[in-house]
What does this fold into?
Amino acid sequence: MAKAKTVYFCQECGNELSKWMGQCPFCKAWNTIVEEKSAQIKNTVKPSTAAAVQPSKISSIRLEQDERLLTGIGEFDRVLGGGIVKGSLVLVGGDPGIGKSTLLLQMCKVLSGHMIDDGAGGRKHLNIMYISGEESLTQIKMRADRLGEFASDIWLLCETNLDLIEGVILKQRPDIVIIDSIQTMYKEDIGSAQGSVSQVRETTNVLMHLAKSEGISIFIVGHVTKEGVVAGPRVLEHMVDTVLYFEGDRHASYRMLRAVKNRFGSTNEIGVFEMRTSGLEEVLNPSEYMLNGMPSGASGSVVSCAMEGTRPILVEIQALVAHTNFNMPRRTAAGTDYNRVNLLMAVLEKRLGIQMGGCDAYVNIAGGMKINEPAIDLAIVAALISSFKNRPVSEKTMIFGEVGLTGEVRAVNMALQRVNEAAKLGFTFCIVPKMNLKSIGERKDIQVIGVASVRDIMNYLS
It folds into this structure.
């Protein structure tokens, strides 16, 4: 019989401790240790069962041709790495009201009526099951009606008991399952409350075994904490195959879906959506969308290019430098690293003699994007100089490059893709690191200038 005992878990990293501590010895986080009841069950494997388990040679494993299933939503497929992998477990996290449930229900709408192989040489309709622990059947139906008409029915289930859910899944044998959300699910043999570390970890473990053993693609929705990470133990992100974060201000119209982990594709890939009354609509050209409304002839406005996974995105970097009326100048950075901005301002004062010590400085990535890539350093420098000297940069100029502490401009990766994106949107002038000129080559559609230090960029401010 299972014996219950008291254990302690760290809510940040998920490690188990024998006693309560103020600071977790593993992740060094404070006040994250919680007390929970746990049932210790001794598992024994019979020798006959162990002998039946045999390893397989990698050469004997054959992949199915339709291993990936396209969702029909291009931006979603991009982030997933080319579509849904059979038997995968995908975690979708984001702030409340950001559109997680809407995106997954919209995926169900697009996939409804889709035909797949039945494994016996025939074809069958894709079987989809949407399981909600937060909404009633009527509420889900109301939200589905706003998205449009479904080609075929999908199964709806409102339940939080995972043992019952597991039985329904094994009986219906769906191809795709959506769990909304993992914090509402619970197992009866776990004594702790819903959403606790033990419940989230064990329910995710059950879903992982279901996905792998039955070949079912499962999407689970996860709530996030005030720090912006998925609530529950950090081990949750290690158990799933793919972790997607839905970013953006819920009061703004656009949303960004970012892959921070993907066993079947590249990480840091993003998909851009716009929230409308009929659901989420893909933004096929994010660069054009981000530059919409850019001012003409204004000082402190510079266009740069950031790489999000394999996709180049042009963004507008704005800087405002003004003399302060206080003893302590104010520094603000929105969308980029605050400490990086201070570092670049120190480089300008030391290497170019531009005294900004008595000025307030504000740097903003227009559109609400968050970019920490060093490739935008040169554009931030140009924006700061442009605002300080009130000398505008041409709106047809794109600038990128990493700036070092000695003022040198270092090469960045994927320079050719960045220049191609600028040329596609009609830019005529591009300032890049001098070390990247060889990889870019000669261009007729856009003028490319290489700079070796921040001093060289002074010559190109109008």
Q: What stands out?
A: The two ends are 80 Å apart (CA to CA).
